[in-house]
Amino acid sequence: MRHQPHHLEQWQQDGFVIIEDFFTPDEISPLFTDFENLYDHLAPERAAAVTLNKKETGVLGKSHPKQFQNIDSLPYEGSIDLNLISLHPALIAFAKALLAVNDVHLYQSHTWAKFTGEADYDQVHHCDFGNHTLTVPSDFAWQRSVDFVAYVTDVDDDLGALHYVTKPDSDLILGAGEVRATEASQLKLKQKERSAAGPAGTLVAHSIDTFHRGTNLTRPEGRRYTMTFGYKATGNDMIGFHVWQSSPHKPWERILNHASPEQLACLGIPKPGADYWTPRTLRLTQDRWPNWDLSAWRAGIE
Ligand SMILES: O=C(O)CCC(=O)C(=O)O
Ligand SMILES: [Fe+2]
User: Fold this and answer.
1) Is the bond preceding 75 in cis, omega lying within 30 degrees of 0?
2) Is the CB of 214 inside a 6 Å radius of any atom of ligand 1?
3) Do residues 24 and 172 share a domain?
4) How many angstroms separate the CA atoms of 115 and 43, rounded?
5) Per the confidence metrics, is the pTM higher than 0.70?
6) 9 vs 16, 44, 99, 206, CA distance in Å?
7) Are 161 and 120 in contact (CB under 8 A)?
8) Could you give the angle at the alpha carbon of 270 between the alpha carbons of 95 and 207, nearest 5°?
9) Taking CA atoms, which of 2, 11, 55, 153 is between 20 and 30 Å from 27?
10) In this structure, are 12 and 156 located in the same domain?
């Protein structure tokens, strides 16, 4: 376990928890290499990376498509480490504890590279439910979700640290349970905002009903590499983002051939012992993915 009871209490109280050393340096360093391979060539030229051109890169404070251009989703054209980090057992355990459920589903996994000068990454305060559900955030935590942000580089204040407002503070400003912020309330939210700056290895957890915003990168030639992981309770059809099944030609073997049954259950693959597994489904699955070791699923069936 990499989380403590006080982290769960903080999540219940504030809607945000930040754990600075959630991932170890040994876990982060291969991810950094992957990010360099995937994104370094997209970094702006030096001259662009030291000056911020707001006119070209977006309206200050509003989200803008340029903010989201260096994003990829699972599975990744990278190492096994990069492909498995969204399903790290400690992350799964933390998601279960935060949502207070026994089974969770990974419904979002992104890499995201931001570069000084590439875009104006400043955003207004918002909650993320708008593109995670067609409904509004539930009154019950387990019916909402947990959004994790993992830092692959140090994310200092001049490197686009996320800013957030605790639930008690936003409730005081907007009214209890409000998830919409008027333009007039933005200033008040900013006055109460805190920084989620932290070193590589930091994990931030928040929910689809918590106010936060992206901020701009201002350090000359700065780069911010992060990953986003979204978990929900298994079977919660209100929440969604990716449809893993719609990209069968992506490198799924990098996950299937290396992940445990518990990890794969988070992608919707039935656990060993589930009635889905029969001699027929096992045979066809093995034909489809020849290098996936199915022995755990096969046990007791064949
Ligand atoms: O990357 C960040 O720091 C926050 C971005 C964000 O909140 C968003 O795009 O919804
Ligand atoms: Fe957001």
Assistant:
1) yes
2) yes
3) yes
4) 6
5) yes
6) 10, 42, 12, 13
7) no
8) 20
9) 11
10) yes
Query: Tens of pLDDT along 166-215?
Result: 999 999 999 999 999 999 999 999 999 999 999 999 999 999 999 999 99
Rounded Cα–Cα distance for residues 302 and 297 (Å): 10
Instruction: Annotate 153-209 with three-state secondary structure.
Output: CCECCCECCCEECCHHHHHHHHCCCCCCCCHHHHHHHHHHCEECCECCCCEEEECCC
Same domain, 293 and 205: no
Residue 51: predicted pLDDT: 59
Which structural domain range is residue 292 located in? 270-302
Given the structure tokens 């918590």, which residue do they identify? 210
Q: Are residues 189 and 236 in the same domain?
A: yes
What residue owns the CA closest to ligand 1's atom 9? 214
pLDDT interval class at 45 (50, 70, 90):
confident
Ligand 1 pocket residue status of 159, Cβ below 6 Å: no
Is the pLDDT assigned to residue 55 strictly greater than 70?
A: no
Residue 213 Cα to ligand 1 middle (Å): 6
pLDDT in tens, 20-35: 999 999 999 999 999 9
Pick the atom of ligand 1 nearest to 161's CA: 3
Q: Any idea which residue has 């007791």 for tokens?
A: 300
